[in-house]
Amino acid sequence: AQSVTQLDSHVSVSEGTPVLLRCNYSSSYSPSLFWYVQHPNKGLQLLLKYTSAATLVKGINGFEAEFKKSETSFHLTKPSAHMSDAAEYFCVVITYRNNNDMRFGAGTRLTVKP
Amino acid sequence: NAGVTQTPKFQVLKTGQSMTLQCAQDMNHEYMSWYRQDPGMGLRLIHYSVGAGITDQGEVPNGYNVSRSTTEDFPLRLLSAAPSQTSVYFCASSYGGVGGANVLTFGAGSRLTVL
Predict the structure, then answer these.
(1) What letter would DSSP give residue B68?
(2) H/E segment holding residue A31
């Protein structure tokens, strides 16, 4: 079975400081991993995805994530937080065994303080 | 604007009532799906479709029906609403599924309350 665990339900940072949102996954097969962002009262938007190419993935708005197979992790980072980054972030896994079944983490709410 | 349109945005039902959440996309996407979002649980897949006439169950299909008679539309039916179905529902679509180079486009969501 595949699953995703987001280690923090809420992260608070000050504007201009680094962001780290943690995600661990479990999968019996080679996974594809995604980060989605949801701004208040909006649908979800893809930030970035890993599909077995380069392990360091760059996404939109300065975010990036590194796939570490040995640690089964896919943490999301950004060097400098902006007020507009305040949102809910979801880590998502799919495996090629069932290519249309995405499993979402519970989400991490990011707060950015001025 | 091209995208995924969900209606209604808000709905209040009484236990036992039925209703349909509508989802339409104008991007000629083959894959469409429905998720529910509950606090602390992320999004969970209810049903999905890989093309007109083809549907399949996701993680939490009980209490919901779907059909896909056209490429554009993928309605979600609640046959007899229960308070446990109080949630925010999202429809999403993509050109060819969720793997590889495909990217899901999400609707803005439908908030359903069952009393």
Answers:
(1) -
(2) strand A31-38
- CB spacing of A9 vs B40 below 8 angstroms: yes
The whole-chain average pLDDT of chain B stands at: 92
- Chain B nearest CA to A87, separation (Å): 14
Q: Write down the pLDDT at residue B86.
A: 97
- Both tokens of B93, joined, read 């679509």
Spatial distance between the Cα atoms of A35 and A92, rounded to a whole number of angstroms: 6
In angstroms, the CA B28 to CA B95 distance is 7
Run of H or E including A92 = strand A87-95
Amino acid occupying residue A21: L
Give the whole-angstrom CA distance, residue B24 versus residue B77.
Answer: 14
Contact call for residues B75 and B69 (beta carbons, < 8 A): no
- The CA–CA distances, whole Å, from A3 to A89, A106, B41, B61, B85 equal 16, 11, 12, 18, 23
Res B112: pLDDT: 97
Residues 40-69 of A with CB under 8 A from B: 41-46, 49, 51
The answer to whether residue A32 neighbours chain B at the CB level (below 8 Å) is yes
Cα–Cα distances in Å, from A46 out to B79, B83, B115?
A: 32, 31, 34
Mean pLDDT by 10 residues, chain A (114 residues): 88 98 87 90 88 86 94 96 96 74 89 96
> Which amino acid is residue A16, in one-letter code?
G
**Rounded CA separation B52/B72 (Å):** 9
